[in-house]
Each structure stands twice: as structure tokens, then as C-alpha cells.
Amino acid sequence: MTITNQHVADIAAAYLNRYPDSDLEHLAPLMDLIAAGGDITSRHHLPGHVTCSAAVINPAGQVIHIHHNALQKWLLPGGHCENHDITLTGAGLREVHEETGIRAEWLTEWGTESFSVVDINIHPIPANPAKGEPAHWHADFRHIYRLTKDADIDLQSEEVSGFVWLNPAEREPSQLTTRLIELATVKS
Fold first, then answer.
1. Geometric angle at alpha carbon 90, from 80 and 150, rounded to 5°
2. Is the distance from CB of 88 to CB of 142 less than 8 angstroms?
3. For 44-62, what is each residue's pLDDT tens digit?
4. Are 62 and 166 in contact (CB under 8 A)?
5. Residues contacting 158, CB < 8 A, separation 6+
6. Pick from 47, 53, 25: nearest CA to 137
7. Are 77 and 96 in contact (CB under 8 A)?
């Protein structure tokens, strides 16, 4: 079983209901993708596809970032959906575990699945000739979780070469940063 387009559409609708100030023009490619159909969570769906990532917040209020080897950037842990994923939340939690070693049972959702999506970010991905992938874009569903215990970080060295915990205010200014700061203030 795989994540259905209806599931993606439902989570996107709940996100837009929760955050009506979201930039609808920015999300137009995602809405077009959903309307066109196809396997929109497959990494082979072009010109773009759905991915998942997570803002994992430790007890000190810091968010983990991983250094992504292919993109040479500091990012939230996350990545592509796989055929055995059945929800966006599940895909995001799987990616967090794969890249950082943080287990799902060490995390609590900030709310329901649709509430835990605090940002949908559409961004370009450069071509990767080594994988035979042309330039494309990701519609990244970004979830938020609180880490409930101290965790030893065990990085997936094939994809990740480092990690750092940052205060939300240390991140580049963005819609996600603003929401993380707001939520951290409410939940502190």
C-alpha cells in the first residue's frame, strides 16, 4: 500500500484550514500535482513530487538539523516517500529514524497528523546525474515533533555527514521558523 493522493489532498486541506494566511500561489504546483493525479509521492514523478521532513524539538527547545551530503546543506531530517509508507506522518517519522537514529516512540506529535504539518514548502532540487535524476521540485510536508527523551544520534552516513541542534531563532527567517517560534512559545 502507498500514500494515496486523497490522503495528500486531505492533509493539504487541513493545513490550509489551519494556516489560512499561507501563500496559495506558492502552493499552486502542489495543487496542480494533486489535481493531475499519478503517483505523486514517487520520487520518479516529474516535474515534482511530495516529500516529508520533520522539525524535531529537544527538551531545550532546539531543532535538529542534518548536513545533507548530496545537497551540501543543513536541513531538517526528511526525504522521499516509499511504497510501504501509508501516511505522510509515517514517511516523515521513518526518515527521521533513518537519518538520525531517533525512534518514533521517542517523539510526540504536536497535535493530530494534520496539525503536525506546520509548513508545506515547495523548493527546487538540482539535477543529480549520479542517480539519473533531472532537476525537479519537492513539495515538502514539514511536521513538528517534541523529543521526549535524550537520544544518542546515529547518523546515516550515506546521506548525512553531521548534525546540530539550533534554536528556532537561529534558523534562516522563513514561514517555518516563524511557526516554530510561535509553537515553541505556546508549548513551553
1. 100
2. no
3. 999 999 999 999 999 888 8
4. yes
5. 69
6. 47
7. yes
Question: pTM of the full predicted structure?
Answer: 0.90
* Amino acid letter for position 69: N
Q: What is the pLDDT of residues 114-145, one digit of tens each?
A: 567 889 999 999 998 988 999 999 999 999 99
Please, which residues have CB within 8 angstroms of residue 49's CB and are 6 or more apart in sequence? 33, 40, 41, 42, 43, 80, 81, 136, 138, 139
Reading the block at residue 38, the C-alpha cell is 499519478
**Cα–Cα distance for residue pair 71/148, rounded to 1 Å:** 30
DSSP letter (8 states) at residue 40:
T
What 3 state SS string does 49-103 have? EEEEEEEEECCCCCEEEEEECCCCEEECCEEECCCCCCCHHHHHHHHHHHHHCCC
Cα(103)–Cα(22) distance, integer angstroms: 31
For residue 55, give the C-alpha cell. 522539525
**8 Å CB contact between 147 and 56:** yes
The Cα–Cα gap between 109 and 112 comes to 7
Tell me which residue of 53, 70, 77 sits closest to 165, measured CA to CA. Answer: 77
